[in-house]
Specification:
By secondary structure, the protein is mainly β. It is globular and about 45 Å long.
Length: about 130
C-alpha cells in the first residue's frame, strides 16, 4: 500500500504534441494503471489523442470542452466540475479550457500494455 497527498506532489509542464498552458501531476504510475492530475490554464489544451486504452476523467475544478469525433464528424462536449467522463479505447479526445479559471481534472487510465496481447492471454486467447 502507498499513500500520498495530492498537495505534496508537484506539477510538471505538460508540453507534448501541441498541448499548451498545461501541467500535470503523476500520482500513480504502475504497469497497468495510471492516475494523473491535470491543470489547464484559461485557453490551455491537451494534445488531440487517440489511445488503445481507456480513461475515466473526473472534473475537479472549472469548466472546459472535450473535442472528439463520431462517425467522422467533429463533436464537442461541454464539461464542468463534478462531471465524470469515460473515454473508450480509440475514442479521439482533446481537453480545452474554455473558462476564465484553471480547468483541473483527475485522469485514471489503463496502460497500452493491457491491449498488446495481454487481454487475449488473460482470456485464454478468447476476446
Amino acid at each position: 500500500m502507498r499513500i500520498s497527498r495530492l498537495d505534496e506532489v508537484g506539477f510538471e509542464d505538460f508540453v507534448e504534441r501541441g498541448s499548451r498552458s498545461a501541467s500535470r501531476k503523476t500520482l500513480v504510475m504502475e504497469k497497468f494503471f495510471r492516475l494523473r492530475y491535470y491543470s489547464l490554464e484559461p485557453g490551455g489544451q491537451t494534445p488531440f489523442d487517440i489511445h488503445d486504452y481507456e480513461h475515466v476523467v473526473v472534473v475537479v475544478k472549472g469548466r472546459g470542452s472535450i473535442i472528439s469525433r463520431e462517425d467522422e464528424a467533429p463533436r464537442i462536449y461541454h464539461v464542468a466540475e463534478g462531471d465524470v467522463i469515460h473515454i473508450g479505447p480509440r475514442d479521439p479526445h482533446q481537453f480545452v479550457n474554455t473558462g476564465n479559471t484553471p480547468f483541473e481534472f483527475l485522469c485514471f487510465s489503463t496502460s497500452s500494455e493491457l491491449y498488446v496481447g495481454k487481454v487475449q492471454e488473460a482470456l485464454g486467447g478468447k476476446t
